[in-house]
From TrEMBL:
The lineage of its organism: Bacteria, Pseudomonadati, Pseudomonadota, Alphaproteobacteria, Acetobacterales. It holds the Pfam family GntR. SMART domains: FCD (SM00895), HTH_GNTR (SM00345). Coiled coil: none annotated. This is GntR family transcriptional regulator. InterPro entries: GntR_C, TF_FadR/GntR_C, Tscrpt_reg_HTH_GntR, WH-like_DNA-bd_sf, WH_DNA-bd_sf. It comes from Roseococcus pinisoli.
C-alpha cells in the first residue's frame, strides 16, 4: 500500500502524488505489465482522482508507465534489449556520479553513506529483503547526491524507475554479493581516499552483478506478470 499524502503548503498535492508513485515504482510496489487503477491509488493516498490522473500522465511522459488506451496505463514490460540499454546507461552515468562524489564528499557524508550500507547488511542477514532493497536504493541515491549534480541524479532516477518493477524478481535471492566482498565497501573506501577511478569501477561492479542476475531471471519475471483487468 502507498502511504497517504500529507498535505504541505509548500508542495502541491499533484507533486506529492507524483513523487510517491515514483518511489513505489522504484521499490517494486508494482509489477511489469500491471495496470494502475486510478480509483484504488486515490483511495490509498487519500486524495481525489485529479492529482493521481495528472501524476500518471506525467509518468507516462517520463517513460516510467505506458498508455494502454484512453483510460488505462500500465507498468512497461522490459525486453532483454531494453534492459541491457538501461543497464549500459546506468553503468556510465552512475559511474560518473560516483567519480564526482569521490572528489567532493566530506568525511561526515561518507560516514552517513557507510551507515546506510551497514543497515542494508543487517537487513539482508536477517532476511528482510524488501527493507534491504529500500536501503540499497537509499545508498545509491545518497551517492548520487554527493556528486552535487542534480540533473544527472534525475536522469539516473529515471533509469531506476524502469528497473524498479523488476526487482521483485530478485527478492528470493538472499545474496548477490557476500557481505564482506560487497562493492559498496570499495565505494566507501574510494570516497575516503578521493579516488575517482576506484569509485567508478566499484559502483559499476555493483551494478553489473545486479544486472547479470536480473537478466538471467528476466524471462521468468516477465512470464509471471499479472493479467490485469482494465483500470
Amino acid at each position: 500500500m502507498i502511504a497517504p499524502v500529507n498535505l504541505a503548503p509548500e508542495e502541491s498535492v499533484a507533486a506529492q502524488v507524483h513523487q510517491r508513485l515514483r518511489l513505489a515504482l522504484m521499490r517494486s510496489r508494482f509489477r511489469p505489465g500491471e495496470k494502475l487503477k486510478l480509483r484504488v491509488l486515490a483511495e490509498e493516498m487519500g486524495v481525489s482522482s485529479m492529482p493521481v490522473r495528472a501524476a500518471l500522465a506525467r509518468l507516462v511522459t517520463e517513460g516510467a508507465l505506458e498508455q494502454v488506451d484512453r483510460r488505462s496505463v500500465r507498468v512497461p514490460v522490459l525486453s532483454d534489449a531494453r534492459l541491457r540499454e538501461v543497464v549500459e546507461l546506468r553503468l556510465d552515468l552512475e559511474g560518473k556520479a560516483a567519480s564526482r562524489a569521490a572528489e567532493r564528499a566530506t568525511p561526515p557524508e561518507i560516514d552517513a553513506l557507510a551507515a546506510i550500507h551497514a543497515e542494508m547488511t543487517e537487513l539482508r542477514l536477517s532476511g528482510r529483503m524488501e527493507e534491504m532493497m529500500v536501503a540499497n536504493e537509499r545508498f545509491h541515491r545518497t551517492l548520487w547526491s554527493l556528486a552535487e549534480m542534480p540533473v544527472l541524479a534525475r536522469i539516473i532516477e529515471g533509469l531506476w524507475l524502469q528497473c524498479g518493477p523488476l526487482n521483485a524478481g530478485l527478492k528470493a535471492i538472499r545474496f548477490l554479493h557476500q557481505p564482506e566482498e560487497h562493492p559498496h565497501h570499495e565505494v566507501i573506501r574510494a570516497l575516503r581516499q578521493h579516488d575517482s577511478a576506484l569509485a567508478r569501477l566499484a559502483i559499476q561492479r555493483d551494478i553489473s552483478v545486479y544486472a547479470d542476475a536480473l537478466l538471467r531471471r528476466l524471462p521468468a519475471i516477465n512470464a509471471a506478470r499479472p493479467n490485469p483487468e482494465a483500470a
